[in-house]
């Protein structure tokens, strides 16, 4: 039966447009629906949010032809320093220094500002004849059966398709409408996010410092600017967020230290309450989940979007190969192939970030001793260090073609 589109993607945040571009390269017709108008996503004002994109994700951007437009605005992550911090003293002597020269592929990845990434994605989507972007378009209902699927929008429009992809974030209604439940825990932590301008050069070094209330990540941006993800207990974070800019910086100073000289705020300040949110299943009849709709993890390793990018590359490859073989690509056996491929990587990262947060976000003397011992051991053991570096760069495990920079 004729359908309005092959694949309807609910959610035009980051993973939705990326998936649409990957699928279009393989000849699928795709419709992306987002509740928010496109202009909101592409607002050029700098809003302080940025992403650490691992080398594997950068490979995918390159394979999809997006990298050339982003390269000049991206800051390579040359080194990563992970330290057990003490408020008032900054990083302690217990730390691991990951030097990209030990990695034959080069820097671990790049820092890209949210505004640049979203604008590049939207421009590519709008220029693509096989992709239709509808926004604002809120999906309010979905129907699926063995013959096809349909989405109902808030204005009553019905869109028919062969497959629905839920890219609608942590609270995914696509998942709940399909009867998929999720496991959720509240970390009772909130990340404060903003960008800072500073006096001394950052040399492309990313810092991750662990404090009893939560980690502080200092991530290099182009120029003398860094993006921070400063995690505190939710109660304390709310109090800090309510401060004026001067007092906000004064509260940050004991953790940030003075290694970058004088610092000033650059752009707006954000607060993100943190939790772990994992869908119990990734597929249902003609429905599949991608990105935060499938897994929302702690941001301490900067891997949430990278995990979503790996979903995108994997789903695009599985669907493309199934289509080339003449299989019914929108049905259970094919979708399960995708879910099986992604399960181990996702579970591993969700557990690792959850475990690291529990191990480091406390002031227990015994645990402090243990983790300092651990950091010292990793720092002193080259093969262990290189293993962590390959994982951070998104080069570990069984990678789909796009993550290796190859076409579909
Ligand atoms: C503090 C913080 C720092 C982070 N830093 C990093 C980092 O450095 N590196 C990294 O890899 N990851 C990072 N992440 C994770 C990353 O931000 C997320 O993984 C990513 O934004 C998820 O993108 P998404 O497209 O899956 O979902 P979202 O960005 O949540 O997009 C979902 C979209 O769906 C739309 N939508 C929802 N419901 C409907 C509906 N009914 N109809 C139509 N549209 C709908 C919404 O409007 C939205 O646009 C960080 C996260 C946090 C909280």
UniProtKB/TrEMBL annotation:
Gene3D superfamilies, alphabetized: FAD/NAD(P)-binding domain (3.50.50.60)
UniProt-listed InterPro entries: FAD-bd (IPR002938), FAD/NAD-bd_sf (IPR036188), Ubi_Hdrlase_CS (IPR018168), UbiH/COQ6 (IPR010971), UbiH/COQ6_monooxygenase (IPR051205)
Signal peptide location: none
Cofactor: FAD
GO biological process, one term: ubiquinone biosynthetic process
The FAD-binding domain, residue ranges: 4-341
Pathway: Cofactor biosynthesis; ubiquinone biosynthesis
Gene Ontology molecular function, alphabetical: FAD binding; monooxygenase activity; oxidoreductase activity, acting on paired donors, with incorporation or reduction of molecular oxygen
Keyword set, alphabetical order: FAD, Flavoprotein, Monooxygenase, Oxidoreductase, Ubiquinone
A GO term from the CC aspect: ubiquinone biosynthesis complex
Family: Belongs to the UbiH/COQ6 family.
Protein name, entry field: UbiH/UbiF/VisC/COQ6 family ubiquinone biosynthesis hydroxylase
Species of origin: Pontivivens nitratireducens
């Amino acid at each position: 039966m004729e359908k309005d589109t092959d694949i309807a993607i609910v959610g035009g945040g980051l993973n939705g447009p990326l998936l649409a571009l990957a699928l279009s390269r393989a000849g699928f017709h795709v419709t992306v629906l987002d509740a928010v108008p496109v202009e909101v996503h592409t607002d050029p004002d700098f809003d302080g949010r940025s992403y650490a994109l691992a080398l594997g994700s950068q490979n995918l951007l390159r394979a999809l032809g997006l990298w050339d437009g982003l390269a000049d605005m991206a800051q390579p992550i040359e080194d990563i320093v992970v330290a057990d911090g003490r408020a008032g003293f900054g990083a302690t002597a217990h730390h691991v220094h990951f030097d990209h020269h030990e990695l034959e592929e080069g820097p671990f990845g790049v820092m890209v500002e949210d505004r640049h990434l979203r604008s590049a994605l939207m421009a590519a989507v709008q220029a693509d004849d096989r992709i239709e972007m509808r926004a604002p378009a809120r999906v309010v209902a979905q129907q699926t059966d063995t013959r096809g699927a349909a989405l109902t929008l808030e204005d009553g429009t019905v869109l028919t398709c062969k497959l629905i992809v839920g890219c609608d974030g942590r609270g995914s209604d696509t998942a709940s409408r399909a009867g998929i439940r999720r496991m959720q825990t509240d970390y009772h932590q909130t990340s404060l996010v903003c960008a800072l301008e500073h006096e001394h050069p950052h040399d492309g070094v990313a810092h991750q410092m662990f404090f009893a209330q939560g980690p502080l990540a200092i991530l290099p941006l182009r120029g003398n600017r860094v993006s921070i993800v400063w995690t505190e207990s939710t109660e304390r974070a709310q109090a800090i967020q309510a401060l004026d800019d001067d007092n906000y910086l004064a509260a940050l100073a004991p953790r940030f230290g003075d290694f970058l000289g004088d610092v000033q705020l650059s752009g707006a300040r954000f607060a993100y309450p943190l939790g772990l949110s994992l869908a119990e299943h990734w597929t249902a009849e003609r429905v599949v989940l991608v990105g935060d709709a499938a897994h929302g993890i702690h941001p301490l390793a900067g891997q949430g979007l990278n995990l979503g990018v790996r979903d995108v590359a994997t789903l695009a490859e599985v669907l493309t190969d199934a289509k080339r073989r003449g299989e019914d690509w929108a049905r259970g056996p094919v979708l399960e192939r995708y879910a099986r491929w992604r399960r181990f990587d996702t579970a591993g990262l969700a557990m690792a970030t959850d475990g690291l947060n529990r191990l480091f976000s406390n002031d227990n003397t015994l645990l402090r001793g243990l983790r300092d011992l651990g950091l010292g051991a990793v720092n002193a053991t080259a093969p262990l260090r290189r293993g962590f570096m390959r994982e951070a760069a998104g080069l570990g495990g069984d990678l789909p073609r796009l993550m290796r920079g190859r076409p579909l």
